[in-house]
Amino acid sequence: MTKKGVQHETTTNIYRGVQNAGDLDLLNGAHTTAELCWQHQLNAQLLSHWKSEFLERASQVFEQDDKHSVEQERIADLEHLIRRLAMELEIAKEASLLLSSLSSRNGL
Predict the structure, then answer these.
(1) Which are the contacts of 49, defined by CB distance < 8 A and separation ≥ 6?
(2) Cβ–Cβ < 8 Å for 28, 22
(3) How confident is the model over 16-47, as pLDDT tens digits?
(4) What is the C-alpha to C-alpha distance for residues 64 and 40, in angstroms, rounded to an integer?
(5) What is the C-alpha to C-alpha distance for residues 26 and 39, in angstroms, rounded to an integer?
(6) Are 31 and 25 in contact (CB under 8 A)?
């Protein structure tokens, strides 16, 4: 694996660690960079890189939530439409059968 690949993998692991443990100590100043590097066995430069990258992209988390909400609303609307169309189809089938049986009784 290339050095960049290792760095990306390590950064991804840090993100998972923060998400899983809720350890935002680097951002809120509860622990020093040295303490966190020792705790997570990381290079200080990598941790600094991760922090700046995280802060640059933090707003995207909320944008994705908004996009997700719009998508979920659209999915709910489409599911409602599908149920309505399925019901209309069933009614049309029943009407067709009823009309068919009435015409055969009347000899039409």
Answers:
(1) 7, 11
(2) no
(3) 544 444 456 667 777 787 887 888 788 888 88
(4) 28
(5) 12
(6) yes
% of the chain at pLDDT higher than 90: 25
Both tokens assigned to 60: 């995207």
Which amino acid, one-letter code, is at 87? M
- Strand stretches in the chain, DSSP E: none
CA dist., res. 13 & res. 7, Å (int):
10
CA 5 to chain CA centroid, Å, is 24
pLDDT recorded at residue 75:
94
Domain boundaries in the chain?
Answer: 3-105
CA distances from 23 to 42, 48, 55, 67 (A): 14, 15, 15, 26
Tell me which H or E stretch contains 59: helix 44-105
Identify the weakest region by mean pLDDT among 17-21, 49-53, 65-69. Answer: 17-21
